[in-house]
């Protein structure tokens, strides 16, 4: 799919996971720190309120001492199906420099699960910036880490 204004300057990655949706959801939500960043980076969710309007506070740590805080707000939490975050609203409904809306979803597919991570941007420039930052490689690596964790015996 091409990113356009009509689809919210959307970028996405998808993977088939050879595991039932209940297992995938459990790993996605209860082990989020373990797959959220491409290694050797790591993520720590300091706060994740599992409800629409809840706070999401994640910090990513790089191998060379980089520290990137990511405060945001949970836009949707549909148990067993999808969750969505944005960086456009932080704290107590304070506006922030909007960059993206991230949506992570799963659905049954055959004997497994279809995982899709979607990122929508306010502007074409933000979409291009995210592409140049390595969206496909980074979000793809996270998806691959999730697949590996879910398919462990």
Automatic annotation (TrEMBL):
Xref: Pfam families: AHSA1
InterPro entries reported in the protein's UniProt record: ASHA1/2-like_C, START-like_dom_sf
Domain of life: Bacteria
Signal peptide: none
Record domain Activator of Hsp90 ATPase homologue 1/2-like C-terminal: where: 18-150
Family, per entry: Belongs to the AHA1 family.
Protein name: SRPBCC domain-containing protein
């Amino acid at each position: 799919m091409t990113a356009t204004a009509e689809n919210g300057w959307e970028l996405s990655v998808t993977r088939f996971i050879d595991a039932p949706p209940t297992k995938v959801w459990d790993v996605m939500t209860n082990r989020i720190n373990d797959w959220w960043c491409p290694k050797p980076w790591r993520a720590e969710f300091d706060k994740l309120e599992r409800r629409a309007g809840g706070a999401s506070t994640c910090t990513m740590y790089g191998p060379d001492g980089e520290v990137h805080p990511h405060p945001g707000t949970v836009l949707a939490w549909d148990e067993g199906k999808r969750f969505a975050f944005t960086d456009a609203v932080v704290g107590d409904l304070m506006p922030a420099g909007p960059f993206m809306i991230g949506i992570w979803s799963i659905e049954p597919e055959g004997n497994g699960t279809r995982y899709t991570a979607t990122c929508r941007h306010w502007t074409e420039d933000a979409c291009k910036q995210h592409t140049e930052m390595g969206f496909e490689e980074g979000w793809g690596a996270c998806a691959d880490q999730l697949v590996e964790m879910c398919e462990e015996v």
